Amino acid sequence: MPRLNGLEATHILRKENICSMAGTFIVALTANTSAADKYACKEAGMNLFRN
Fold first, then answer.
1. What separation, in Å, do the N-terminal and C-terminal C-alpha atoms of the chain show?
2. What is the largest CA-CA distance in the chain?
3. 31 falls within a domain
4. What is the pTM assigned to this prediction?
């Protein structure tokens, strides 16, 4: 993504109520495997983490 990464985009979508947790399912697809990466995805508002 040219301007935002997935974490930033998800955070904005959730914060601005553009995509609700109930109405829009966001999945993190990443090569990162650390617990910190998984936590960051959850904190951003992603519903599922897959690596």
1. 19
2. 29
3. yes
4. 0.81
Structural domain boundaries enclosing 12 = 6-50
Q: How many domains does the chain have?
A: 1
> C-alpha angle 5/14/40, rounded to 5°?
50
3-state secondary structure 1-51: CCCCCHHHHHHHHHHCCCCCCCCCCCEEECCCCCHHHHHHHHHHCCCEEEC
The answer to whether residue 37 sits within a structural domain is yes
Please report whether residue 1 resides in a domain.
no
Q: What is the pLDDT of residues 13-38, one digit of tens each?
A: 999 989 888 889 999 999 989 999 99
Q: Say if residues 7 and 36 touch (Cβ distance below 8 Å).
A: no
